[in-house]
């Protein structure tokens, strides 16, 4: 671009091919410093080039629109282009002149700065000469500017004409094109809808023809094609909804029609015959049940290489109803054929092949088995499924259903999915569960059942009834160790609960010599023990005898003689047998059996007090037996874990094989029950003594009779308890219990008599006679043993078990003694009377028994 300074020698004034061009204005004048500046107008060459390039396009548009004038625009544009080129050439020449003039002005300015060296006249002459040379070149430049302005105006006019006329015609053409395009699209949609309607109508017509000819597979295919056409029509949202409703209704009616015909054919080809009775679980009903599979094609039916049943199934498959139909058939097959075969050992399946059908029925076989053998059941079921596979599910592989080839694989898998879950559950519950051995020694024989189960599943997979790997049936059979442990534990718990809920009063007598009838346990370290014993014997002669002179009795830590429930004895035997079984079982089984034994005792702790609650509260004998049962169990629990600690699985040998933690609970359980019975008996004793009218006014016959009756009732109750508990409770427990109850009665009698304020001589005599009755008959309640001769020892030891027995004797003495005898037995607080009563109690009795005399006062003064 031209820099604008005439004195700039390096300004590219001549390079007019760039985007912008400046021309000096006509009014440009030289400045005082010797330079000149001229105005310029800008010309956009890119616009001119664009116009030239679009000339042919605009010409065509105007020609088609009919608005082109006589003079061709292309011709005018070419002429303008040539004039522009000439202008550029002239401008280049003028640029050279300007460049030379600029240099001259630069010299003039330099000369002006050096004016002190030159004369002013010479400078003025030189300037005038140069200016006269510059005027012609400037005039030619102004002419060129005028030509460029005119050319620019022509270009603007042409541009405005294009915008006003050509664009308007383009908009009109675009709108017409859009309308035509939309019309074409609408016509295409309508044509597509008509084509689909035609296909729908054709499919329905062909369907009706095929259905009339009983070509069910073809009819199902045509109906499926109609269904697809209707689906495409529904996807067109612009379609009339009334027509769609009519088409949908027609399609639904036709589908139900073919399903009805297929159902009729299905019932004709597959016939179930049931007994008249509604009870289908009995053996007689099963023997009258039959399944008929027809294999003959009807005359009107389509002649195909496949069986009629298979063609019906194919039609159901095409219509999407095959799964429901096979599900219904599978449920009936399971209920009336497979489940009876799996649950009844005397039933066997019989297959009869007739010319036009195959019949599946049952026959009964004599057997002594309570539950069927798994191997036999598997064989029976496989026979039935093979017939179904051959007659019902064996479709040919080349049956083409629109590039889909349903084969025997599809149908068999569908039926297998329907019945397998229930069938496997039935086989497990009715066969495999009962085949689990009850003893660990028979586990090796179970391998045959596992093998037969594997063969059964393999056969089902070959018939395509099963898919995938191992099923629940085979997993159950292989997991025999866990199932054996579970069954064993379940049987143990069930047996234990039955024992707990049995009658308690059926008892057996146990002695210190009694042992649980369990085989001797093998020693885990026999070799080591023998070695230790040899060492001990070799050193025995060198050691001093360190044994104490007085040794403990061999039964010191044994349970005393008593009676326990027979069920509890069997319960402990069950626990020992279960732990013995655990010693020969696998680790997993041993752990389960061990904790099952612990669960037995937890169950006893919860069940027995609740189940027998009413009897334990009302019957003293049962309370005593329950007490003995709990002590018996606790006694064995002390050493039960220790006996088996080294013989169980290693995982149980870390200190967990113990039952000692259960001992306090069982002791507390027995003690609480017996103490509750003791409190009840104490309450009855006190209630009977309450009818003695406080032993006051014994001179009254009625009062004396009431008191005597109360004493008799108390003694009778104690004797009855002694009889009930005889040979039941251990001797020491028996004596303590009877002593406690007798002591309660005597304490009540002593308290009532000492509370009297006045006791006459006659009252004293009668009170003495009542106490004499207690004193004479009281020891008789101590009869822990059935042999009377052996009970005398315990009757002589009554003061040991009855703390109030000696005070009761002293009371009887005071009722018949004189003041002197009372004083002598007091003996200044050191006599037996002082040991039995306090001084206040003795003084109260003296005041009640004796009148207020000097002798009484003297006696009272001695009681301190």
From TrEMBL:
Main location: nucleus
Residue span(s) of domain Centromere/kinetochore protein zw10 N-terminal: 121-204
Residues annotated as domain Centromere/kinetochore protein zw10 middle: 262-500
Annotated Centromere/kinetochore protein zw10 C-terminal domain residues: 557-687
Entry's localization field: Chromosome, Centromere, Kinetochore; Cytoplasm, Cytoskeleton, Spindle; Endoplasmic reticulum membrane; Lipid droplet
Residue stretches making up the ZW10 C-terminal helical domain: 709-863
Protein name per the record: Centromere/kinetochore protein zw10 homolog
Species annotation: Oryctolagus cuniculus (Rabbit)
Lineage: Eukaryota, Metazoa, Chordata, Craniata, Vertebrata
Gene name of this polypeptide: ZW10
């Amino acid at each position: 671009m031209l820099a604008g300074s005439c004195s700039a020698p390096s300004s590219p004034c001549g390079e007019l091919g760039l985007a912008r061009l400046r021309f000096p204005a006509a009014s440009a004048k030289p400045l005082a410093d010797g330079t000149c500046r001229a105005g310029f107008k800008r010309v956009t060459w890119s616009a001119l080039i664009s116009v030239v390039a679009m000339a042919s396009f605009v010409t065509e548009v105007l020609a088609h629109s009919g608005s082109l004038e006589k003079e061709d625009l292309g011709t005018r544009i070419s002429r303008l282009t040539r004039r522009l080129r000439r202008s550029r050439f002239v401008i280049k020449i003028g640029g050279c002149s300007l460049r030379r003039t600029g240099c001259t002005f630069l010299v003039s300015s330099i000369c002006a700065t050096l004016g002190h060296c030159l004369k002013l006249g010479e400078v003025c002459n030189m300037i005038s000469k140069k200016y006269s040379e510059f005027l012609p070149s400037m005039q030619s430049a102004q002419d060129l500017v005028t030509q460029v302005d005119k050319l620019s105006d022509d270009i603007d006019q042409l541009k405005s004409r294009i915008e006003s006329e050509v664009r308007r015609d383009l908009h009109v053409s675009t709108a017409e094109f859009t309308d035509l395009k939309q019309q074409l699209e609408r016509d295409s949609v309508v044509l597509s809808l008509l084509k689909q309607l035609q296909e729908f109508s054709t499919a329905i017509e062909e369907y009706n023809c095929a259905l009339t000819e009983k070509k069910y597979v073809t009819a199902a295919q045509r109906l499926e094609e109609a269904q697809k056409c209707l689906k495409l029509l529904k996807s067109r949202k612009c379609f009339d909804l009334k027509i769609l409703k009519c088409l949908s209704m027609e399609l639904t009616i036709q589908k139900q029609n073919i399903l009805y015909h297929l159902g009729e054919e299905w019932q004709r080809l597959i016939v179930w015959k049931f007994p008249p009775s509604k009870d289908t679980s009995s053996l007689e009903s099963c023997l009258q049940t039959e399944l008929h599979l027809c294999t003959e094609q009807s005359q009107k039916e389509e002649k195909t290489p496949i069986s009629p049943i298979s063609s019906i199934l194919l039609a159901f498959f095409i219509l999407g109803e095959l799964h429901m139909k096979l599900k219904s058939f599978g449920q009936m097959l399971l209920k009336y054929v497979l489940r009876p075969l799996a649950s009844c050992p005397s039933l066997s399946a019989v297959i009869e092949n007739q010319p036009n059908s195959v019949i599946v029925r049952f026959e009964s076989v004599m057997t002594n088995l309570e539950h069927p053998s798994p191997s036999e059941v598997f064989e029976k079921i496989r026979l039935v499924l093979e017939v179904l596979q051959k007659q019902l599910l064996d479709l040919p592989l080349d049956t083409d259903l629109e590039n889909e080839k349903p084969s025997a694989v599809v149908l068999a898998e569908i039926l297998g999915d329907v019945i397998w879950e229930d069938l496997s559950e039935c086989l497990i519950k009715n066969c495999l569960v009962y085949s689990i051995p009850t003893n660990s020694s028979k586990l090796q024989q179970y391998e045959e059942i596992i093998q037969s189960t594997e063969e059964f599943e393999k056969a089902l997979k070959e018939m395509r009834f099963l898919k995938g790997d191992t099923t629940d049936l085979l997993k159950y059979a292989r997991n025999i160790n866990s199932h054996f442990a579970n069954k064993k534990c379940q049987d143990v718990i069930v047996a234990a609960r039955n024992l707990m809920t049995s009658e308690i009063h059926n008892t057996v007598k146990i002695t210190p010599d009694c042992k649980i009838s369990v085989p001797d346990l093998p020693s885990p370290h026999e070799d080591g023990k023998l070695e230790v014993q040899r060492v001990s014997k070799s050193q025995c002669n060198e050691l001093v005898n360190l044994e104490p002179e007085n040794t403990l009795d061999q039964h010191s830590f044994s349970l005393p003689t008593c009676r326990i429930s027979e069920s509890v004895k069997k319960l402990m035997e069950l626990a020992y047998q279960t732990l013995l079984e655990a010693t020969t079982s696998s680790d997993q089984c041993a752990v389960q059996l061990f904790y099952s034994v612990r669960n037995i005792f937890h169950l006893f702790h919860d069940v027995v007090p609740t189940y027998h609650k009413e009897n334990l509260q009302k019957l003293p004998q049962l309370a005593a037996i329950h007490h003995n049962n709990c002590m018996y169990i606790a006694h064995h629990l002390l050493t039960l874990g220790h006996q088996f600690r080294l013989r169980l699985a290693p995982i149980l040998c870390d200190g967990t094989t113990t039952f000692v933690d259960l001992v306090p609970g069982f002791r507390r359980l027995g003690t609480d029950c017996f103490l509750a019975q003791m409190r009840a008996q104490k309450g009855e004793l006190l209630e009977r003594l309450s009818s003695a009218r406080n032993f006051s006014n014994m001179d009254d016959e009625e009062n004396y009779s009431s008191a005597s009756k109360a004493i008799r009732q108390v003694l009778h109750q104690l004797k009855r308890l002694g009889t009930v508990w005889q040979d039941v409770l251990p001797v020491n427990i028996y004596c303590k219990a009877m002593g406690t109850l007798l002591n309660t009665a005597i304490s009540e009698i002593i308290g009532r008599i000492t509370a009297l304020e006045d006791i006459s001589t006659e009252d004293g005599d009668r009170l003495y006679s009542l106490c004499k009755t207690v004193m004479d008959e009281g020891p008789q309640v101590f009869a822990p043993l059935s042999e009377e001769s052996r009970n005398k020892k315990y009757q002589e030891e009554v003061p040991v078990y009855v703390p109030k027995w000696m005070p009761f004797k002293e009371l009887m003495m005071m009722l018949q003694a004189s003041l002197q005898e009372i004083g002598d037995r007091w003996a200044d607080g050191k006599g037996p009377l002082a040991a039995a009563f306090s001084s206040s109690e003795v003084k109260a009795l003296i005041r009640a028994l004796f009148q207020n005399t000097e002798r009484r006062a003297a006696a009272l003064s001695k009681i301190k």
